[in-house]
Design goal:
Structural class of chain B: alpha/beta
Number of helices of chain A: 11
Largest interface: A-B, 28 and 27 residues
CATH superfamily of one domain in chain A: NAD(P)-binding Rossmann-like Domain
Order of helices and strands of chain A: EHEEHEHEHHEEHEEEHEEHEHHH
Helix content of chain B: 25-40%
Low-confidence stretches of chain A: none
Oligomer: heterodimer
Structural class of chain A: alpha/beta
Number of domains of chain B: 1
Strand order of the largest sheet of chain A: 3-2-1-4-5-6-11
Largest sheet of chain A: 7 strands, parallel
Strand order of the largest sheet of chain B: 1-7-6-2-5-3-4
CATH architecture of chain B: 3-Layer(aba) Sandwich
Number of strands of chain B: 7
Mean pLDDT of chain A: 90
CATH class of chain B: Alpha Beta
Strand content of chain B: 5-15%
Number of helices of chain B: 10
Number of strands of chain A: 13
Order of helices and strands of chain B: HHHEEHEHEHEHHEHEH
């Protein structure tokens, strides 16, 4: 198949470690158009690459010049990257623009990467949360409003524009080499905070497995909302031990202390609005995605943690 | 070495170790299940509680053969004694059942996970937040789930109301009927006397955000506890009406009352 014969696939957040892995999987079968709002990403010769904000008018030029047939929307402004307003513009208004353009230019398939943060961390959460569970994150902190609204937008378009074939993935903690989210940053540190007396259960997925999940979601057309999480669980403090982190306890009482302490120190890896996620569990039921798409994670928790531990032992981290 | 590893070495006997290892309980690669149950955690709890079970409360069990060795089951018991000592003792009885040990999955009050250390420690021993979703999912995992349908009304009642069953919630019966789960009724006799309460210090409870603050001895008294496990009760079929559910709840309550009456008749005194 020549470059012109291949269907065009727009991948947002192309500079990120996860998107790079998705591009590597899909570039042979698709004419990949790489887009990132941070920088122009270096890609293979012949592959189109743009630096543009998704809510910017210039974003439409990509749709005008490429016959975009599918989108994998990974690009997101991280929680620690900017203030709430800027994040809202990029993540929510940018996604709305992307979805509007998708309708206008008759895109046939969209995969949206969401996050398990949307469920919110609460002591009352049941384990093995399914996709129907209410999204309570914005009830707990205004800093996660953009994550919930992004999902709500994708949901509205999913039902209103079925021809877009939208698949929304809500993965657990994505970690592994090159991943720069707050959890990966935390596991990379030699010293990591814990909230005294709390060690919630957590789930982790390796970036390679998540890239495979995104690829499957794009190539198999099953629109809908899916949790993506392997059936393996581990307590947070055990994770830190396995990753070779020295645990620094933060007093859990009075209840506002950990949040204020985190704000004061302005930790990127342990942001104040995620404090509840280090106190209470958010355990996903990933069976719907696994059964629908035939997905199985290939990397074990041991594989994931050994990456962080070994790099610390080798003094790379 | 972690605190848990240290405790495991100090308190877990070979008998407890082999007992827990016999429990057919699938866990993940680090020994956890989705609710935070941990095989080593249960061993430590058992190591700490078994001496109390054997020598302090001198627990006697009757009818343990009625608890299925495998497959889903709801263990429904009366609640008493201010602290969840009854739950812990039923847990030890289930985990050391000579007819086939089971991992006890206690449904606990919603405020428990908010407590530092205690919430996680209870989770490791198999306790989970009393949410119907948790209960249904654990039963679908073929677990033995322990519920106290009286809730805090049962455990927090004053000594003057001892052995008077409080109002039963009907959630457990909905789950039993919808999921086709047998119920093993349990009558707990003796826990009422471990922490006899004169009343509730409501203001202090409010300030401490606790459901109640009993006026009772600081430490539990060494009352002898008797656990009566009844024959499994099966409630099949689709729910036709709420009245039907309440009738079935009453049947379970009646069975527990019968087991309690038997225990009170058979015991010779609080401490004997």
């Amino acid at each position: 198949m020549t470059q012109d014969e291949k269907p065009s696939l727009l991948i947002t957040g192309a500079g990120g470690a996860l998107a790079q892995r998705v591009i590597a999987r899909l570039k042979r079968r698709y004419n990949v158009v790489a887009v990132d709002f941070r920088r122009r990403v270096q890609v293979d010769p012949g592959m189109a690459s743009y630096q543009v904000s998704y809510h910017n008018r210039a974003f439409e030029d990509i749709f005008r010049s490429h016959n975009v047939q599918g989108i994998v929307h990974i690009g997101r402004m991280g929680l620690y990257e900017s203030d709430h307003k800027h994040r809202y513009n990029i993540n929510v208004l940018g996604t709305q623009k992307l979805l509007d353009l998708s309708v206008k230019y008759k895109v046939e398939k969209i995969v949206v990467l969401s996050t398990y943060f949307v469920y919110g961390a609460s002591p009352y959460n049941p384990a093995l949360i399914t996709e129907e569970y209410p999204l309570k994150a914005s009830e707990l902190t205004a800093d996660l409003v953009d994550s919930v609204e992004l999902e709500n937008l994708a949901n509205i378009y999913l039902w209103k524009n079925p021809e877009l074939n939208i698949t929304i993935l809500r993965p657990c903690n994505i970690v592994g080499p090159g991943v720069l989210n707050s959890m990966s940053l935390l596991l990379s540190r030699r010293v990591a905070p814990v909230i005294l007396g709390f060690s919630p259960m957590m789930q982790f997925i390796h970036a390679e497995d998540m890239a495979e999940a995104l690829t499957m979601a794009y190539e198999q057309n099953h629109p809908g909302i899916y949790n993506v999480a392997p059936s393996d669980w581990v307590a947070y403090q055990q994770v830190l031990k396995q990753c070779g982190c020295i645990r620094i306890p933060i007093p859990s009482l009075p209840s506002q202390f950990p949040t204020k302490f985190s704000k004061l120190l302005n930790w990127r890896a342990f942001p104040s609005y995620l404090i509840n996620y280090y106190k209470y569990p958010v355990i996903l039921d990933g069976t719907l995605f696994a059964d629908t798409f035939g997905f199985r994670a290939n990397r074990s928790l041991d594989d994931i943690f050994s990456h962080y531990r070994e790099r610390k032992e080798m003094k790379i981290l | 070495m972690s605190i848990r590893d240290g405790l495991k070495r100090a308190v877990v006997t070979p008998e407890i170790n082999s007992c827990i290892n016999r429990i057919p309980k699938p866990v993940g690669s680090f020994g956890y299940d989705p609710w935070g149950y941990n095989t080593d955690g249960l061993k430590v709890w058992m190591g700490l509680f078994k001496p109390l079970y054997d020598h302090y409360f001198r627990v006697q069990t009757f009818g343990l053969e009625h608890v299925p060795k495998t497959k889903r089951v709801l263990i429904v018991a009366n609640h008493s004694g201010q602290l969840p000592i009854d739950g812990a003792l039923i847990g030890v009885a289930l985990a050391t059942n000579p007819y086939g040990p089971r991992a006890p999955r206690m449904m606990v009050e919603r405020w428990l996970p908010t407590l530092p250390f205690i919430g996680n420690a209870f989770n490791e021993a198999g306790a989970v937040v009393g949410d119907p979703v948790n209960c249904v999912k654990m039963l679908r995992n073929e677990e033995a789930v322990v519920v106290f349908p009286e809730g805090i009304k049962g455990s927090g009642k004053a000594f003057s109301k001892r052995y008077q069953l409080q109002k039963f919630g009907s959630g457990f019966m909905h789950i039993a009927m919808e999921e086709n789960v047998p119920i093993v009724p349990v009558g707990v006799v003796g826990c009422e006397e471990t922490l006899p309460s004169l009343g509730n210090f409501a203001m202090l409870a409010y300030l401490l955000r606790m459901p109640y603050f009993p006026i009772c001895p600081i430490l539990p008294l060494p009352a002898r506890v008797r656990l009566y496990f009844g024959r499994p009760m099966v409630f099949k079929g689709e729910i036709q009406s709420e009245q039907e559910v309440l009738r079935n709840v009453h049947r379970v309550r009646y069975a527990i009352e019968g087991l309690i009456a038997q225990g009170l008749k058979e015991r010779k005194g609080w401490f004997q």
